[in-house]
Amino acid sequence: MSERTGIAKVASGGTELGRVRGLGSAREGTGHFIHQRLTAVGNLALFLWLIVSLVRLPLADFATMREWLGSPLAAVPMILLIISVFWHIRLGLQTLIEDYVHSDAPRILALVIVNFYCVAGAAFGIFSVAKIAFTATAAVTGVPA
Amino acid sequence: MAVSIFHRATGDGLAIVGTLALLWWLGAMASGADAYGAFIACAGGIVGKVILVGLSWAFFQHLFSGLRHLVLDTGAGYELKTNKMFSILVFVAAIVATAALWGFIFMETI
């Protein structure tokens, strides 16, 4: 640690805290690391469920597929899958961008796009599953909801 | 080295192409029979099948190299021979799993 005067600090761009702020792990690194791995395990379990389900379903049969996704035992894991996947993607693409995009403006813009895409994508997916699940009875019985 | 690059490349591909396919599938199913039929027509065509096979390979490659990372996180598998063996195993397992999946689908549809 250098013993600089107040004037020297200003000349080199503010205080020590001011210079490092926004540049790195603001005690978020461990949380990022753990969430990346937690969602990885979540993805593993949920995608195994999805693949095993899909290969046994008549994928081209709209009515059967809707009835399947309308049941709680399919809708809930599908919603969990969407959350886990988009969370994992948000963290993964953040790492990618921070590693390869070095200038500030493009990096911040890319991070904003990733955040917006992941939240919007997850919202669209969850809404679709919810719509199918909450109108499942109507689809089966033919009575409009 | 290669397995790490592939982990990032497949993760990136899955994040963009994979999620768009997933959201299209879910959105089409929520929209109705016509939209779902259009999705199935695209997914079942030649281009759609190539993309789906590619996505499934990228998925298995990312899955197995992800499992490798979870093992490495425990501090195990850093010896040169073990590390190299697991790296090669990741590529082989991804190709085998992709072939097994599409072999199974092919057998089912006959």
Produce a short descriptive summary.
Chain A is an all-alpha fold and 145 residues long. Chain A is 78% helix and 0% strand.
C-alpha Rg of chain B (nearest Å): 17 Å
Q: What is the averaged pLDDT score of chain A?
A: 86
Task: Let me know the CATH homologous superfamily of chain B.
Answer: Fumarate reductase/succinate dehydrogenase, transmembrane subunit
Q: Number of domains in the coordinates of chain A?
A: 1
Structural class of chain A: mainly alpha
**Briefly, what CATH class of chain A?**
Mainly Alpha
The count of DSSP E runs of length 2 or more, i.e. the number of strands of chain B, is 0
Oligomer: heterodimer
CATH class of chain B: Mainly Alpha
Count of runs of 4 or more consecutive helical residues of chain A:
7
Determine the CATH topology of chain B.
3 helical TM bundles of succinate and fumarate reductases
CATH architecture of chain A: Up-down Bundle
Uncertain runs of chain A are 1-10
Give helix and strand order of chain A, one letter per element, not per position. HHHHHHH
Indicate the CATH topology of chain A.
3 helical TM bundles of succinate and fumarate reductases
Global morphology of chain B: elongated
Q: How much strand content do the residues of chain A show?
A: under 5%
Helicity level of chain B, as a percent range?
A: over 70%
The total of beta strands of chain A comes to 0
Number of distinct helices of chain B? 4
Give the domain tally of chain B: 1
Tell me about this structure:
The complex is a heterodimer of chains A (145) and B (110). Chain A has one domain (36-141): Fumarate reductase/succinate dehydrogenase, transmembrane subunit (3 helical TM bundles of succinate and fumarate reductases, Up-down Bundle), CATH 1.20.1300.10. In chain A, helix 3 (29-55) crosses helix 5, helix 4 (62-70) crosses helix 6 (104-134) and helix 5 runs antiparallel to helix 6 (104-134). Chain A is elongated. Chain A contains seven helices and no strands. Chain A is mainly α and 145 residues long. Chain B has 110 residues and is mostly helical. Chain B contains four helices and no strands. Chain B has helices spanning 2-31, 33-44, 46-73, 80-109. In chain B, helix 1 (2-31) runs antiparallel to helix 2 and helix 3 (46-73) runs antiparallel to helix 4. Chain B is elongated and about 55 Å long. At the A-B interface, helix 3, helix 4, helix 5 and helix 6 of A face helix 1, helix 2, helix 3 and helix 4 of B.
